[in-house]
Design goal:
Helix content: 40-55%
Distance between the termini: 48 Å
Radius of gyration: 32 Å
Strand order of the largest sheet: 6-5-4-7-8
Number of strands: 10
Structural class: alpha+beta
Largest sheet: 5 strands, mixed
Strand content: 5-15%
């Protein structure tokens, strides 16, 4: 029986000679070629079949695969028939020896399971589910599933401790850093909310790094004093007290619904009520951030003012968030636009539900999911969880529909969904008006760190675009966007920090300025404030003790002593820097090269480029958690959610 079930490459050869040490000579049954090899090393036989007789080789491989699957399946079924106490770590069912706890393969699989739990924010209880355990035994019968208690109380905390050590070590060498505070309230299902403290710093070799320092649950109302207290404790624990350059924080805690869609553009696979909640939530946040309006929660103004009092001039608003709210306010569109977008959404939903994906690929690119999911992969700026609900993602869909409207109308049999000429004109104007805003949003979304040096040029570019654009159907949108831009982002144009960050970006410098001399003075004051030389007047030399002159060998005493190079003043450094033409180069790469030439400017650059214009990883995770915690989603809430969020945000510290 055993010999009949055995699959061997020698079945395709006739052995004609067998010598010492297992040496054999065989003739191929198909062509008669003689092959020499050993019984224990049969690669020559395999290679011959693969090169000369592909069909025989494929048959051999198929037999091997069938044999392997039958072996694994038989072992699993045999193990399922045994009682639980009969299992042993030393000898399992089918005489398969189980891995020891410290076996490399056992450790590797346990780590892979922990990675899955972290990345997918799964409840640790999944390791005790019957189906999950059956899958593990099918894939690796020798693996012993770890109990939930071990993963929850030892494995995950151990990973968190490793991240803390790595973070503290990295921050010790950082000269300065900026911190982002993300407040999220998950409603009754979450039992309160969470505070995420993310640190951004530049390493000695000018690499930007971001790390979530803590994710803390906030029960009840999270006041500004509570946030400040937690922030100070975290700062001391990680050794960054006194190093924080700026604190980026929104005045109100977000409830995970800051994403909004184009008005009326509702896709299949999304909950309309959920979208309505998102819209109302955004109005509340907008009202709390500087408008009077009903719907703002109790204590909104006091929280806003308290944050300013707590952090003072160190606190700034997140540019990505402010830009998002500008678009949100500007898109309070008149009925004709909403009706056109609603019809466009119906047309889009019908097309993606009924047209073959290969045809849709000609319009929307690869990866279109049919069946009403409305998912277009490969070009969406946001992650899969929220991409189809972001207005800039939807604007791309509208643009591609308009570009291929004749093709789509030819393959769709619903004339009632066809867009009229007026509706097409309205949508084309909307795309034209929002295109620069879409470009700006794409810049400040995603995983890459984007500094605030982009903020000021974006505001100037958007203001210029709105002043030069003329519309017939979208005049209300144009006016609304201009008003929202002035209300929320006009102060950036005169803010010393944004002026400094933009001027120290080599691709901009002061090429954008309409008053170069005034901005030069702003830059000088800001640089002097953040450098050691700025502590004293430029005309008065610093009184720091000079190092003793180096002792020269008597052998070289005849050589003239080279005069010590005179340090440049801030004005000289700035004049030399601005004299160079702007160049399209990453700011950190540039200042890594120029740190020796411009020591004082580079010192300031290493501070200002830590301030992010983008949303942080933990904020994007909060959006994902918000969907998990919605009452209509019957998914168990992980008990150690803050630990999972902490590890997910710092995933690259452990696994790259």
């Amino acid at each position: 029986m055993a010999s009949n079930s055995r699959v061997s490459i020698l079945d395709y050869f006739n052995i004609v000679f067998e010598g010492e040490n297992g040496k054999i000579e065989s003739n191929c049954k198909a062509c008669g070629t003689r092959i020499q090899a050993k019984r224990t090393v049969t690669s020559n036989f395999v290679t011959h079949l693969k090169r000369k007789h592909q069909a025989m080789y494929d048959e051999f491989v198929k037999k091997k695969d069938v044999k392997r699957e039958a072996y694994s399946s038989g072992a699993v079924h045999h193990m399922a028939g045994r009682s639980e106490p009969a299992r042993s770590s030393h000898g399992g069912a089918g005489n398969i020896a189980k891995f020891e706890r410290n076996d490399p393969r056992q450790v590797l699989i346990s780590e892979a399971i922990a990675k899955m739990i972290i990345r997918d924010l799964q409840a640790v209880q999944i390791v005790e589910n019957e189906g999950f355990r059956e899958l593990l035994q099918l894939l690796e019968p020798r693996y012993t599933p770890e109990p939930r208690r071990y993963i929850q109380q030892q494995l995950l905390p151990g990973y968190a401790y490793q991240v803390q050590l790595a973070t503290k070590q990295a921050l010790t060498a950082a000269e300065s850093c900026s911190v982002t505070l993300d407040l999220w309230r998950g409603g009754a299902a979450a039992g309160g909310g969470y505070l995420g403290v993310t640190c951004h710093f530049i390493t000695a070799d000018w690499q930007i790094r971001s790390a979530l320092l803590a994710c803390l649950p906030l029960a009840g109302q999270g006041t500004a004093q509570r946030v400040l207290s937690e922030f100070e404790e975290i700062s001391h624990a990680h050794g960054i007290a006194g190093k924080v350059f700026r604190v980026v924080a929104d005045p109100l805690p977000s409830d995970g619904r800051s994403i909004f869609r184009l008005p009326g553009f509702c896709l299949h696979g999304s909950d309309e009520e959920e979208d309505d909640e998102e819209d109302s939530s955004d109005e509340e946040v907008g009202a709390g951030e500087g408008e009077e309006g009903a719907g703002a929660g109790p204590g909104t103004d006091s929280v806003d003012n308290s944050l300013d009092l707590c952090f003072g001039p160190c606190r700034i608003d997140c540019f990505a968030r402010s830009l998002s709210m500008c678009v949100r306010e500007g898109l309070r569109a008149p009925p004709p636009l909403s009706l056109a977008l609603t019809k466009a959404a119906c047309f889009y939903n019908y097309v993606t539900a009924t047209v073959a994906p290969e045809k849709l690929g000609q319009v929307f690119g690869t990866g279109v999911a049919s069946g009403g999911g409305g998912t277009l992969s490969g070009w969406a700026p946001a992650g899969p969880a929220h991409g189809e609900q972001r207005w800039n993602w939807q604007l791309k869909a509208v643009r591609r529909m308009l570009e291929s409207t004749e093709f789509l109308e030819d393959i769709v049999d619903r004339q009632d969904l066809t867009l009229s000429s007026l509706e097409k004109a309205v949508l084309r104007e909307l795309v034209e008006v929002l295109e620069p805003f879409e470009e700006a949003m794409d810049m400040v979304q995603g995983d890459k760190h984007v500094s605030i040096s982009l903020a000021l040029p974006c505001v100037l570019g958007l203001r210029k675009h709105l002043s030069e654009t003329a519309t017939r159907q979208c005049t209300g949108v144009l006016v609304g966007l201009a008003q929202a831009l002035d209300r929320r982002l006009a102060t950036i144009l005169e803010d010393p920090l944004h002026v400094t960050a933009t001027a120290l970006d080599p691709q901009f410098k002061l090429s954008w300025s309409s008053d170069t001399e005034w901005h030069r003075q702003v830059l000088l004051k800001e640089v002097a404030k953040h450098t050691q030389a700025g502590a004293s007047s430029p005309q008065v030399p610093t009184q720091e003790p000079q190092p003793p002159p180096s002792k020269r060998s008597k052998l070289f005493s005849f050589m003239k002593q080279r005069p010590a190079s005179q340090a440049k003043s801030i004005e000289q450094e700035l004049a030399t820097y601005l004299h160079e033409e702007p160049r399209d180069e990453d700011p950190l790469h540039y200042w890594k090269r120029k740190a020796t030439d411009f020591p004082q400017l580079s010192q300031v650059a290493k501070k200002v480029f830590t301030v992010p214009a983008t949303t942080t990883p933990v904020e994007r995770i909060f959006h994902t958690v918000g969907r998990i915690l919605r009452p209509e989603r019957c998914r168990p809430l992980p008990k150690n959610l803050e630990t999972l969020i902490y590890l997910k945000a710092n995933y690259r510290f452990l696994w790259t």
